[in-house]
Amino acid sequence: MEGESQTQIPHVLIFPLPFQGHINPMLKLAELLLLAGINVTFLNTPHSHRQLTLHSDVLLRFSRFPAFRFRTITDGLPPDHPRTFDFFPDIIASFETVTKPILRDFLISGHFGSDLTCAILDGLFKFLVDADDAEIKIPIFGFRLLSACSVWTYFCVHDLIQDGQLPIRGEEDMDRVLTNVPGMENVLRCRDLPSACRVTDTNDSILQFNIKQTQRSSEFHSVIFNSFEDLEGPILEKIRTLCPNLYAIGPLHALLKAELPNGTECLNNLWDVDRSCLKWLDNQPPGSVIYVSFGSITVMGEEKFMEFWHGLVDSGRNFLWVIRPDLVRGKNGDVEIPAELEEGTRKRGYTVGWAPQEEVLGHEAVGGFLTHSGWNSTLESVVAGKPMICWSYISDQQVNSRFVSNVWKLGLDMKDVCDRGTVAKMVNELMVDRKEEFMRSAAAMANLAKRSARPGGSSYADFHRLVQDITTLSQLKRHH
Ligand code: UDX
C-alpha cells in the first residue's frame, strides 16, 4: 500500500529555559535537527520570543524550513516582571504552578501535532513533566546546557553533604581541597563548587532545586550534553553510570558551522549586535587584543566594574569589552571617570553593548578572552583556540573555570578576586609572559574540538545516533 511505504518524518518539540545562554544552543540544536530532515517546533515564552525576533534574524533564517514552527507558552509572570536571572526562584515557581499544567494539556491534547515524536526539554525543566505521568505518551529528552563537570559535581553534592564536607565553613574554608569527588579527586576546592553550594544551610531552596533536578536527570528518556569526549570523556563516563542514554554532541556551534555553507554565522541574540567592533579589530595587530565579556546575565556593582576598567587600562594591552546596558547594578552615571581611564580606553580600548561573539573570538587580532566562564563562552573560546582568564560569576561557572585552568590548562582562574592589580597582572601573564604555552594548549584543544564535530569525530557520531534514535522512535510510534 502507498501509505505503508511512506516514511513518517520525525517531529521534535524543543523547549529551553528563557535565558540567552539556553535559547542559543537549543536553537542550534533545532537547526541541526532540521538540516538532518527532522521537523522541529520550538517553544519560547512570549517575552523571550519577542526579544529574540526583535534582535536576531531567526525568523528569516528558519523560514527556509517550511515545517519549522515557533510556538509560545506563558511563563505565568506579569508583563512588567523584569525576568532577569536575579528572579530565578520566581521564574521557576511560576513555571511550576502556571506553565506545567498548560504544557501537560498541550502534550496530551496533541496541540503541537499528532505526529510529535518526542520533546527535548532544558535539563533544568525536569520538574515540568512528572516521570509517572502515563498520559504523556512521548519520550522526554533532557538537554543539560552546562558542562558535564559541573553536572557531575551536582550529582556528588548530596554525598558531600552526607559526608560532612558541606556546608562550607566560612571564607577561611574556601580553599579546602575536596579529596573524594569521584573522578575529580583533589581537583576542586570548596570555592570551585557550583555557586549554589555557597550557603550555610544545605536545605537552601536553590541548592536543593539544583541537586534534585540533577538527580532526576536519570528519569529522562535520554540526556544530551553540549560537550565532547576529548574534553570531558572521563566525566561523561561517570554520568553514564546514572544516565546510560547519553549523547555528547558539542561543541554544537562547531557541529552546525560544519553543516552550513561557508561557515555561516548564526546569531540568536536577545540584544542588538554592534558589529563595529569587527572593524576596530581589523586595525589591531594579530593576537594583541584581550576580549572581555561576562555573558548575558552577569551583574556587578560599580566598584568591581571600575576595578576591571582600571586593570584593563593598566595592563597596557588592547582590549575589546562588552558592557551590556544592564551589566552594572544601580549605575548612577554620577561617578567621575578618571582622565587616565578615558585616555587609556581611547588609545587601546573599544566597548560595545553586545558583540558578535563567535566572530570576535575567531578574529586573528584577539589573543585571549577574559570571561565569566559561561559554558557557551567557554566552548566558543575552546573552538577559537583562545586562552582564557576566568572570572566566574554563578552556577556552573565556578567549576568550569577550575577545569579551564587546572585540568585543561587553557588559562588562568581569577575567581573571587578582581582588584585592578590582579586584572592587569593576569592579562599580561596570559597575553605576554605565558602566551606561547597557553596558545599551544588552546590550539591543541581547538583541533580536538573541531575534529569531534567532523565526520569520524565523537560528537558527529553521537549527533547522528541521536537523529537515528529519534527516527526509530517515530517509526515505532507509527506502528503502534
Ligand atoms: C548562562 C550561564 O551563565 C552559563 O554558565 C550556563 O552554562 C548557560 O547559561 P550566560 O551567562 O549568558 O549563560 O553565558 P554563556 O553560556 O557564555 O552564554 C552567552 C552567549 O551569549 C554565548 O553564546 C555568547 O556567544 C553570546 N554573546 C555574549 C554574544 O553573542 N555577544 C556578547 O556580547 C556576549
UniProtKB/TrEMBL annotation:
<dbReference type="GO" id="GO:0080043">
    <property type="term" value="F:quercetin 3-O-glucosyltransferase activity"/>
</dbReference>
<dbReference type="GO" id="GO:0080044">
    <property type="term" value="F:quercetin 7-O-glucosyltransferase activity"/>
</dbReference>
<dbReference type="Pfam" id="PF00201">
    <property type="entry name" value="UDPGT"/>
</dbReference>
<protein>
    <submittedName>
        <fullName>7-deoxyloganetic acid glucosyltransferase-like</fullName>
    </submittedName>
</protein>
<dbReference type="InterPro" id="IPR002213">
    <property type="entry name" value="UDP_glucos_trans"/>
</dbReference>
<keyword id="KW-0808">Transferase</keyword>
<comment type="similarity">
    <text>Belongs to the UDP-glycosyltransferase family.</text>
</comment>
